[in-house]
Design a protein that fits this description.
By secondary structure, this protein is α/β, with parallel strands linked by helices. It is about 20% helix and about 30% strand. The chain contains seven helices and 13 strands. The strands form four sheets. A seven-stranded mixed beta sheet has the order 7-4-3-8-9-13-10, with helices on both faces. α6 links the parallel β8 and β9. The N terminus is likely disordered.
């Protein structure tokens, strides 16, 4: 295979030193083509991020199956399996839609959108949906799905055995209502504006500074709007320095830390909390069953627009 020289800016996902490194690396064209998100020419220009597991083939394929493959009969075929945890992205988008109120147009922001299923589902109810993810590979998948309505992916079944599948956006979804951007949840660009609903789904414990992200919600959630969070609070030093965890140390509860982080400013009030399970298939006989904390916060004040 030939080679493509790419001068890429790579950011460590953990970013514990907050230092961005610029390097020039050489990649084989076959390596780039191997990534499912990299089937179109524009992807060859993407900024790869050092040490970001969410740029790898394994996670791209796993998340495409998580987002678009759970309706398949063989995704969870086992008697007594946790079927209530299937189709998290559809269910969480439906929860967001419950909080639409007032005259439109209505806007939703999906921070940590991954490969985009919740964003596309939100477009059934919201007039304008912005999905943002730190992984360029994930964002490339979103934009390919927006452009084409479908894309192929492989699903790991056992050992080195894979099966071929198609991720498909329902024909009832107006894909043009969606916009997908690569970005940092801890430093979101203000020019994207304000939103009726902001979704932070299973994101906070993968950020270097969850507090910075939550602090910015007083701007991005418009008065009278809603912030919806889910998190399993699976803190790891490789993503979040222990000093920045919302809880999980010294007997402190992450749930209580989240409440303090969101409501401490006085801008938000808690409306509801519970658990909101999801299921990720690693292969035919191994799954992750997770019960994230789920919370709905309302931004105080009235929308003046």
């Amino acid at each position: 295979a030939g080679t493509i020289n790419l001068s890429v800016t790579m950011h460590r996902l953990a970013r514990l030193s907050s230092v961005a490194l610029t390097r020039t690396q050489t990649f084989t064209s076959s390596k780039i083509a191997a990534l499912p998100a990299c089937r179109s020419l524009h992807t060859a220009k993407m900024s790869l991020q050092a040490d970001n597991i969410y740029e790898t083939d394994k996670y791209v394929e796993e998340y495409l199956a998580f987002h678009y493959g759970q309706a398949a009969p063989d995704y969870m075929p086992y008697e007594g399996g946790p079927t209530a945890a299937v189709d998290f992205n559809v269910r969480i988008a439906d929860e967001c839609a419950k909080y639409i109120s007032g005259a439109g147009p209505h806007r939703a922001l999906d921070v940590g959108c991954a490969v985009g299923r919740a964003s596309f589902e939100l477009a059934k109810s919201f007039d304008d949906v912005v999905g943002i993810d730190f992984s360029q590979a994930f964002v490339d998948c979103c934009n390919q799905l927006k452009a084409n309505g479908s894309m192929p992916y492989r699903r790991l079944d056992e050992g080195a055995n894979y099966s071929e599948h198609i991720a498909t956006i329902e024909g009832s979804v107006d894909r043009q209502r969606t916009t997908f951007l690569q970005g940092d949840a801890c430093a979101l660009p203000r020019d994207i504006g304000q939103f009726d609903v902001v979704l932070l789904a299973n994101l906070l414990c993968r950020l270097p500074s969850p507090q910075a992200c939550l602090d910015s919600m007083s701007y991005f959630v418009k008065p009278g709007g809603h912030l919806i969070t889910t998190s399993p609070f699976s803190w790891l030093d490789e993503f979040t320095h222990k000093d920045n965890w919302l809880g999980g140390t010294d007997g402190k509860s992450s749930r209580d830390g989240l409440m303090a982080a969101v409501t401490g400013s006085g801008d938000f009030e808690l409306l509801h909390e519970s658990s909101f399970p999801f299921l990720i298939r690693e292969h035919a006989r191994k799954y992750q069953l997770v019960f994230p904390h789920f919370a709905v916060f309302k931004r105080k004040g009235k929308d003046t627009q």
